[in-house]
Amino acid sequence: VDLCTNPDLVATDEEVNWGTAIWFWTTSTGSTGTTCKEYVEAGSFGGTVKTINGGLECPAAASHSGSVVGRLNDYCIAANVLSVDNLLSLGECSGLQDTFDACKLAGSCPACNGENPPPPSPPPPSPGPGGNHNYCGLSWADANSQCGESCYGGTNEECSSGLCYADATSC
Fold first, then answer.
1. Rounded to 5 degrees, what are φ and ψ at 119?
2. Can you tell me whether residue 56 is helix, strand or coil?
3. Over its length of 171 residues, how does the chain's per-residue pLDDT go in tens digits?
4. How far apart, in Å, are the Cα atoms of 36 and each of 18, 23, 27, 29, 33?
5. 61 shares its domain with 35
6. Shortest CA distance to 73 belongs to which of 113, 119, 33, 42?
7. Domain extent for 165
């Protein structure tokens, strides 16, 4: 698979998507010299954050504080769904434990306080012609450049090519 000439495969081919995620998880060390896999085996969620986004989130830059709080809440959602009794350590990422404690106290991370989130709402229907930004194509770049067949509902089934891309440039 040549991702340099066809990077859309990461977004459109589930096998490639999972393969690249596992490759990153097991090989990328960022500035830490340690992979996410190794950090999890050592019991450190903070280490995974440091490996992936350490320069921006350990400690969190002001521009990323919302992302950190959202990530912590998502982490707690996953832990709740999987019935995890004890969360992994946050200590490898400077400031992450403080952010976790603050968002629990403020209620910004409701899942970390044991609250189950409501199921996600379906996206609103796309507007009709003139306001729709969902187009069919062989890739996002193709759909974005030709403004051809529309897929108003945002589903692949609406496209003869089988692929619907959202957020394409308005025609």
1. -60, 150
2. helix
3. 888 898 888 888 889 999 999 999 999 888 889 999 999 999 999 999 999 888 888 888 888 788 888 889 999 998 988 888 899 999 899 999 999 999 999 988 888 888 766 555 444 444 444 444 677 777 766 776 666 677 777 777 878 777 777 665 555
4. 15, 11, 8, 7, 10
5. yes
6. 113
7. 123-171
